[in-house]
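Researcher: For the annotation table, I need structure tokens for asparagine synthase (glutamine-hydrolyzing). Please keep the output clean. Sequence:
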Amino acid sequence: MCRIAGIIDSNRNLDQIQADVKSMCDALAHGGPDDEGLTAINELTVFGHRRLAIIDLSSAGHQPMMNGNLTLTYNGEIYNYKELKEELLKLNFTFKTNTDTEVILIGFKAWGTTLFAKLRGMFAFALNDSEEKKTYLVRDEMGIKPLYYSCRPKLLIFSSEVKAFNNTSYTFEENPDWKVYFLAFGHIPQPFTTLKNVFALPGGSYLVWNHNTHQFQINSYLPITGEIKINTQAAATHQVAEKLKNSVSNHLIADASIGVFLSGGIDSSIITLLANEEVKTNLNTLSINFVEEKFSEEKYQKIITNQTSGKHTAYRVTEKDFQLNFDEMLAAMDQPTNDGINSWFVTKYAKENGLKAVLSGIGADEIFGGYPSFKRMNLVQNLKKLPKLLLKISAKLPSEKLKRIYYLSYQNPIGEYLFLRGFFTPKAISKILQIPKIEIDDLLESFPVEKNIDHLVGQERAAWFETNLFMKNQLLKDTDFMSMSHGIEVRIPFLDQHFIAAVAQIKKELLFNKTPKSLLIHSFKNILPEAIYNRPKMGFTFPLQQWFLNKEEIVNEDLYSNLYVKALINKFKTGNIHWSKIFALYQINKYNK
């Protein structure tokens, strides 16, 4: 797991390009503390790298890595690299290292761009082919690992983090729309960022830059979705159990210390128990708890650790810890977000526990219908049948949740998501940012959405929203930059390509049930204690409502110039607004200064 950066520029000299890439890599040092590298491929092209060594800890894993006409700078893990290596050896290719990095290089020699779909893992990389005079930017299917790019005439810049773009001699303007997106979504949705003309490369795609024409295009490498093959409960539970067990086994491949984050919920408990079957006494697990009992899942964590044989470490996060580390958490954010604090702490403790990588249960809720949105899709469809005028009038209702019905007046599926998970309404955003409401409506209603959602209905539609808008834009992004700020890799078995493909073969009536995640639970009833799955759902949350109330720089309305925002701060003090909204307002206010 690493950080990467690079520049291709026909307008500047090599010394300046190298200086800029070096500066970008310096800004990314936290994500690659073990090694650094800079390679001038030609007088116009420089790749940079910061390394976090997980597989093959020796200097043989130094990057950027070259093989003949190919140069690679790579961030991620390829879990099937040994199998691919065996295939390549049979094709008479030879290897100099034991790294998964070299497998990508040799694999491209053998298979070209068809390699990308063969890779099983999480990855973002840049690969230059000096013979073909092309550079490829490639990102994993689910977009677990970040990759941002900016193109201008005869110029391509890329990086693992948006912050690095401003660490160059190039000028990047602020994206005038990011605050609207942030206040509507609670995050900045891909492909947009805080910077104008700096975009996130879509997951499951590759950008190819032609050095002769200085032009680029973005192509998908995703396979065509397979047909439904599993129509019985027995076959479905067997499929889920076998494929997830295989995924966990692959995600434990490492030459450095690795552990599992155990929250006490269904998802992390299953991952922990499967990992325990694989490594037994060598398993490291860690958990977070609080003095505030209603937020603590310690008793559920103990139920699982009583079934495991490795080392478990529990940490107690206090309000004092939050206050002391607040500024550092903000600094760790690559992009503004209304969350991420939990990820910062758990990876901080993983680092202190001597781990290099941690397995996480992210993804199960999106795949198996674990969120309330899955039950609300009928309501969404019924409300959308109302006259548009009536939907718009709902903005005047007293309830903040009911005000979100307004979003269903949009002739864009994004309105459904914003009804389900939206943050502030357009009217509120208008008052916060002091811009016309019609501009906000126009921006949000024109938000680009993939056409494949058009044929999805009901819970399948909810799964698309939760996966492509919430998980990819918030959970994965927050997890990545918070964990990499500590130099920790977070691995996500539920998002393994083979597991995702296997679940896609299951009949939707079996996948989505009246009981949230029932298929997942049934698949592991042989190992999962009933006390874990037969209890109310509790997300991995902190006692932040009270902690934010006690933070003067956030709740002091005198620090805010906007009268409407001042009123919202006062509403928060009386318990009428969720802490995450105030956190968003604080970030907007801080950015404006």
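Researcher: And a one-line annotation?
Model: The longest strand covers residues 70-78.
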